[in-house]
Every structure is written in structure tokens, then in C-alpha cells.
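Researcher: I'm preparing a figure for a lab meeting and need a structural model of a single chain. I don't have an experimental structure, so a prediction will have to do for now. The sequence is pasted below. Please return the structure as C-alpha cells so I can convert it later.
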Amino acid sequence: MPLLALIAGLVGAALQNEGVSSPPRVFMSYSHDDNEHRDWVLQLAYRLRSNGVDVCLDRWDVALGGNLTHFMERTADDAYRVIAVVSETYSKKCNDRSGGAGVEAQMLSARLYAQLESNAVIPIIRNNPEAELPAFLSGRLWQDFRDAATQEAAYERLLREVHGVAVDAAPPIGPNPFEGRTEIQAKLAIRNSAGRWHSPAFQGDVEFIYSQNSGRYKLGSGTAEFTLDVGQRGMGTVYAHNDPPDIAHIAMINGAQQRTELLTDVSQFDTSSRTVEPGVGDAVVLHNRNGFWALVYIIKVHARQALNRELVIEFRYAIQPNRSPDFSGFAFPETDA
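Model: Understood. Here is the structure written out cell by cell.
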């Protein structure tokens, strides 16, 4: 091959690869509690690799006769983050410095103590009813994989953490309400701040005076944000619209608590209309333009007299962080049981 053609090929390959980031590298640290636990860790590792994570696992990275200690030294390598599958057995072995988990704990302790602010180790809890962390992970935030019903959401949170893609995005910093304003202007700016009508958590109970803020209340945050748009219909009933730009579809479930078997897939309900008319005991289904789903259960709709007549709606909501339309685990208010 002519020299110029060879150089052109190398330059072309370099330009093609420019900007292509390497996959994050993760080391799986766990104890061999039993075959079921080992297979669960194997399945998790396979799934992470299928989602763009370079996973280092003893079952496929150490051959028979291989040096296990040399393999475990990767826990001290800054090139790897470590997913620690913290079962009761793992926690005990780490604290007792016994077995492979004990060796890895010793190496990880040195790494964490040298970098106190490090997030190199991601603890996930499984087969550990009391969520007992080993001493070297004390005070660290962990992801809960104990409940099969919520494992899908837990997996997406873990995957987002490894890839550095947050679900809970920090909102932009707004203006100082006191700067360049009179006292009255500042009070009005505070009173009318959008943050007053926003619940950023993935679930919660809300009392919203929907005669304020044009009937709009925000749920969730970042890509998993929804604008609930409601208006007066009648006593015990409201309108809910899909007008906000972040909402793709809206639907309603009549008597949601008496039809829980249908909550496994809320996408089956009719989403062709602009408006639904839920009442107490009904649920509003919201689908946003980023593919997330939310369920809003209406607890109470009423009016009360304050400075002026206030229109109030009380509701419980949940957002599926894994974009699933499955709300079979939705916790209805006990008062309506």
C-alpha cells in the first residue's frame, strides 16, 4: 500500500473514533453465598454488559488455576468502579476480613480512606433484610435490590449512576427575588415562584390549590418531569388536560383502587383525548415526551374559603423511573382501603 494511502487510512480511522468514549469499567465484588445468589450476580453482570458497561467478574475473568489475588487487586485500581453486592454474608465476611470478600474489603478500605469523597464503590443491597453495610461502607448511599417488584427501577438507577446520566437533575438556579425589586415586588416574586408548585420526588402526597398557578403543578424532575394541568369541573370532579408541552398522552382509570389488576399496564387505557374528567377514587395516567409514565390518584376535591375561595385537589402520585407503565405496586392511601 502506498505510504500516502496508509497515512490517509490511519487519519480517517482516528477521526472516526474521535469523540467515541470508552465504556465505563466496573468490578463486581460479592460473596458466594449460594448458587442462586451467584447466578443472580451473573445475570446482573450480563445485563450491565449488554447496556454498555465493561464488567469484570471472577466467573469469566479468572481461569482455573488463575491468580485470584491478582484479580482482586483490580478493586484498588482507579480505572474501575466497584459494585458491591451487599448480602448479609458479604457484610459479615468484609467485617471479619474472611474469604475473597474480606480481601476485597481490605483493598477497598485503603482506596476509600485515601479518597474520602470518592464514589468509587456503589453498594447494592440484596438478601440483606436489615440493610447492614460492612464497616468500610458505613454512611455510603446504596441502591435497594431486595424487593423483586422494584428491582427494575433499581437497575435503571444503578445503570444511570454507572454511565453518569442522572434521573434527578438539578434545576437551574433562578434569579434572586430581592435584587432590583421593591419589597412588594420581592414578595410577589417569592409567592409566584414556580418552585412553590413543584414536587420533584418520584412519589408523594400533594395538596394543590388548583385555582392558583393556572391549575398547573409539576411532578418529578429532569427527563422524568410531568406537568399536571387541572381545572374546575364540579364538586368532586376536575378536568385534566394534556396541553403542557412535556405531556404526550393522558388517560383516566375509573375506580383505580378496585381495579388494581389493570395497573400492570396503564398504557392500555385510552390516550386519544385532550381532556379527562377524574373524580375522587379515579386515577390520571400521564405519559411524558421522554417516555416516562406517572399515575396520579385523586384523594379529595373540594373548595374552602380563605382570602378568596380556593379550589383544592389532594392526590397521591408515583413516577416509574424505568419508563415502565407498570404500577401494580402503587400504594393507595390507607384511608381509602
